[in-house]
## 1
Amino acid sequence: MTFARPVLMVFHGGLGDGAAERTMAAARVAAARRTVEAALAAGFEAAIVATDDVGAFDALPANVLLDVDRPGHPFAFGERLRGLVARYGLQRPAVMGSGAVPLLGEPELRLIVEQLDARDGRFVTNNFFSADLTAWTPGDAIFGVGELERDNVLPRRLRDEAGLAPVVLPRTTATQFDLDTPADLAVLSLGEVFAGGTSAAAAALPLAPYRGLLPLLCEKTAEVVVAGRVGSMTWAHLERDTACRVRVISEERGLATAPPGHRPRSVLGFLLEEVGPERFFRRLAEMGDAVVLDTRVIEAHLGLRPLREDRFQSDLLQPARVAEPTLRRLTEAALDVPMPVLLGGHSLVSGGLMALTDLAWRENDRRLGLSPQS
């Protein structure tokens, strides 16, 4: 079996057995199904779901293939990716994780198809420096790059080692938002586009801080503190599309793809070490009316390596369910300040904030009785 037209590969697996991890796994399956459906409608010839969870993807359409990981075989992204390209003879492959760009629709996916069909020797990605979705042609270019531990570095490898030309999708909420953590799931559950895939999990999500943030984004006298791996594009979006003042502390951009031996350092991490979690959040409360915090930067600064379930429970503002003591105390302190505090990862302070801003203005228009076109 070979495919000459574009084919979407979706990787889903290794998500853990904790309660929060299971919630995220279910949401990512729903996201993957939605993206696959949009991709097929946009002109992809087929889709391949590579997974270690056979039961998660039942009743797939005929042009969606299930490729199950080998039991007992350690997962290696690069090896698995090359195996799929070779096995199915993919000439125009695209690859993403099951939670990647869940708001991507037919228009963006159709653009990828058009770019791949236009000519060989190019790749398309949503983010050149830390990709969530990458498509390329010819497919065998993947055999001309070195080891791939994760998909984030694929665009740079395809350009620098395989000589392909980059095509970067326009930076929009849809191309920058990822479903990585419960914070991202909370953002999706507040919206309308993806409500069907997240409604079952919404009851367990800490939506009050998110709802508390929304009107502040539309309030001229409010100030919002945003800290973590905040990119210039997100900052520009906030400056352009919010009425409030925004205090941005951007640190450790590129942390996920940092070279071996990199030692993360954070201004907020130093403050936390000096004053402790309780005074840390009280100080942040003096700087704004709400805080949106990428906690992974602080964790890296402190040298913490909590389990993914601990991180997710912290995002859910459930300190009693966080086993790592420092992260548990940090989560408790976030709950003690009388202001909205949102905890999450990189997606929260990038596409997540962009999505929240879009939603804030829709809610503002509803409150004022305005139509969407007003």
## 2
Amino acid sequence: MRLLLVDDHAIVRAGLRMLLEAHPDMEIIGECENGQDAIRRALELKPDVILMDVGLPDIPGYDATRAIKKELPAVIILALTMHESDEYFFEMLNAGASGYVPKKAAPTELVNAIRVVYAGGVYLYPSLAKTLVQDYLTRAEQDNDAGAFDGLTERERQVLTLIADGLSNQQVADKLVISVKTVERHRANILAKLGLHSRTELVKYAIRKGLIQVEG
């Protein structure tokens, strides 16, 4: 994986370089300290994955992300930031980022996130995945249409609610006194009833349908 690092703090970039180059499947091909340089270097180097800070000194990371994705739609961008607010989270997803990892995350979490997005998935830090599902539930509950939950059963709604509370499959199973396999089946049914097949599609669906709105 050819990686481009974008962060305005040299010490952060140095730490990332040391961490990531310890893995034989990762190579740092460039570093940038601002958004405009990130756009220029991305076009020049065409990296596989860009680690993009949100709080850059010239333009926000989501503006740089949007500009890069417009010119290089195949480039994967992973947000790495101090910000965990909903606004920045949804701005980055809406701009085309494939994941969002706070800087407080463990090093192993970042390495895993890079591999997930490189493989075509979407990586959401647990607390932010919870935010995404909670936002969907809130909007569905506010919708008076009988189809607000797209035909989900009461049990599937319970599973979705517990997922929104940040519970793992095992914790959901323990809470509802059912097996983990049953929880997995319910999650598969939820995706099927929403017409989706993966977490990636869930994120795109939620943004496209207005289930998630970026606060301006």
